[in-house]
Design goal:
alpha/beta; 10 helices; about 25% strand; 3-stranded antiparallel beta sheet; about 40% helix
Length: about 260
């Protein structure tokens, strides 16, 4: 179970105007602006849930994911993931989570995908039996047979994203963070990725937190959505709670953003 209780996170960002004179001035007197990325954020996610975590750019989604994955520490509040404080129990914590960032890669660019998988096996200390079983299952479900011997740089975006998802699941994590997992994918690849995520949740009971601007992903994969804006949780409910008549999911969410002025 995931619990965030009254979590706050702020960043201090240096500001200056353009020009060489302003750059020299900033060497001696630097101005800062405090950005409140998270402001009293609280929610609970049960084991096996699939949750859409949505909001506009700069709303606080990435900060939340980084705190839950142990990359960042909260300024205040309590964060627990299956009884662990993520940043305090980093080694044990990362063994239980998987992370897929649509615009970043965990595959080594110039070596065959299978070599990246082998290295991840050693990093996570996966037993040979579990690795073989996971690899066979993921290869079959994601149709990776023809891709494993190719370098990541030679794969299309859709092919690489399927390999990225497999890489994040080799160690059988209990919790999966998906950040824009279908960005830039064609319709066929999107459907394949969505179908796989649903099967992973059904077969292994994997808890999934999905952050995306693609509302079709949210509609296809999640039954619960958490809306964050300006660092605050604005809504926590189901898609049925926000749907209006015959409006599409995109129109519904756009209207929701306007209603909350985010």
């Amino acid at each position: 179970m995931i619990t965030m209780d009254h979590v706050c996170k702020s960043y201090k960002i240096a500001k200056r105007n353009a020009g060489f004179g302003e750059a020299c001035k900033a060497l001696f007197h630097r101005e800062y602006e405090v950005i409140h990325a998270l402001n009293d954020v609280s929610f609970t996610i049960e084991d096996g849930e699939m949750v859409g975590y949505i909001g506009p750019n700069g709303a606080g989604k990435s900060s939340t994911i980084k705190i839950l994955s142990g990359i960042l520490t909260a300024d205040s509040g309590t964060v627990l993931v299956d009884g662990r404080v993520p940043y305090k129990n980093r080694i044990e914590h990362v063994r239980q989570i998987g992370v897929v960032f649509g615009q970043r890669t965990q595959l080594w660019w110039d070596v065959p995908v299978i070599d990246s998988f082998e290295l991840l096996r050693d990093i996570y200390s996966i037993s040979k039996a579990q690795y073989k079983q996971s690899l066979e299952e993921l290869t079959g479900l994601l149709r990776l047979e023809e891709l494993l011997r190719s370098p990541a740089r030679q794969l299309s975006l859709g092919q690489r994203m399927r390999c990225e998802i497999a890489a994040s699941l080799l160690h059988r994590p209990q919790l999966l963070f998906l950040d824009e997992p279908t960005i830039g994918l064609d319709a066929v690849s999107k459907l394949a990725v969505r179908d796989f995520i649903l099967k992973q949740n059904k077969i292994h009971g994997t808890t999934v937190i999905l952050t995306t601007h693609d509302m079709q992903d949210i509609e296809a994969l999640t039954s619960r959505i958490i809306l964050i804006g300006k660092g605050r949780i604005l809504m926590d409910g189901t898609l049925d709670d926000i749907k209006r008549g015959n409006d599409s999911i995109d129109e519904t969410v756009a209207e929701l953003y306007r209603a909350y002025d985010i």
